[in-house]
Amino acid sequence: GGDFYDLIPMSDQIVGIAIADASGHGLPAALQVRDVYTGLRMGVARDFKIVRTVERLNRIIHESRLTSKFVSLFYGELEASGNFIYVNAGHNPPIVARERESILLRQTGMVLGPSRDAAYSRGFVTLDVGDVLVLYTDGIVEATDARDQEFGIDRLKRVIAQNRDRTADEIVNAILQGVAAFTRGAVPQDDRTLLVIRRGTVPASEKRLSAEVAIPAQG
Q1: How far is CA 147 from CA 177, 182, 183, 184, 192, in A?
Q2: Pairing mode, if any, of strands 211-214 and 123-126?
Q3: Tens digits of per-residue pLDDT, 12-43?
């Protein structure tokens, strides 16, 4: 499939978080996300800044001879303090659910592939204790019912808000159950990938990153 996610431990203070979706299906899409996986890991290993890493990935995808040459990517680095720096290259905006509001981490650049010299910028948000970060691919929000209506981002935000105080694993299950109920169990027409991170409390004596993460199998 063309969906991809990764968690990259960088230190006991920082973890890299990625989700991507390559256009098309089958082997070409799978090979393209392989390049994203390799490029991200290499960039992190060499301590490249996230904008530079994404720019290098864009050039790799642009110069690829594969038929699947368009990849949406969201990559961010979460610190133990809750600071989260990210680049959103044309991907569905992840959602940060707080007690009284939801924030969309919108695009900071175009999808990877079409333009060799595409420019990207960084976004920044702080995850407070209890905040929930939900990353997903379009198979979630574009799932349709019998009337060809999409599940949509507003329904997704409501499900997250209603379950924000539950564990990351329970939030994942609630979202998947919500989509299944909306589509009445229809066979998915696209991969459905979710990555949910809920920031919990950490004893003051423990100087390490602590987040509850849940990742379901891709559909």
Answers
A1: 19, 11, 10, 11, 20
A2: unpaired
A3: 899 999 999 988 777 777 777 788 888 888 88
Cα–Cα distance measured from residue 57 to residue 41, given in angstroms and rounded to the nearest whole number: 11
pLDDT of the residue at 200 = 83
* 134-154 pLDDT per residue, tens: 999 999 999 999 899 999 999
* Cα 33 from Cα 30, distance rounded (Å): 5
List, for the chain, all residue ranges whose pLDDT scores fall below the cut of 70.
47, 66-68, 201-219
3-state secondary structure the chain: CCEEEEEEECCCCEEEEEEEEECCCHHHHHHHHHHHHHHHHHHHHCCCCHHHHHHHHHHHHHCCCCCCCCEEEEEEEEECCCEEEEEEECCCCCEEECCCCEEECCCCECCECCCCCCCCCCEEEECCCCCEEEEECHHHHCCECCCCCECHHHHHHHHHHHCCCCCHHHHHHHHHHHHHHHHCCCCCCCCCCEEEEEECCCCCCCCCCCEEEECCCCC
| Amino acid type, 146 | A
